[in-house]
Amino acid sequence: MRYVVIIEKGNDSYEAYVPDLPGCVAVGETPEEVRELIQEAILLHVESMRETGMAVPQPLSHSEYIDVPIAA
Asked: What is the 3-state secondary structure (H, E, C) of 47-64?
């Protein structure tokens, strides 16, 4: 499966979350670290859902960049 992951820069770290998997989050010191951690978090999250008999949500979210003309 391929899930959208949102990575945001915080004051001291990078945070990641998965819109289609509520509660699936990770925090790392660098973008690379948070990518690795969120991948592991997704695997653990899905495994936990399966173990408890919950249905694993299909990836439905997508992302796009939108250009907006803003005057300086």
From this structure: HHHHHCCCCCCCCCCCCC
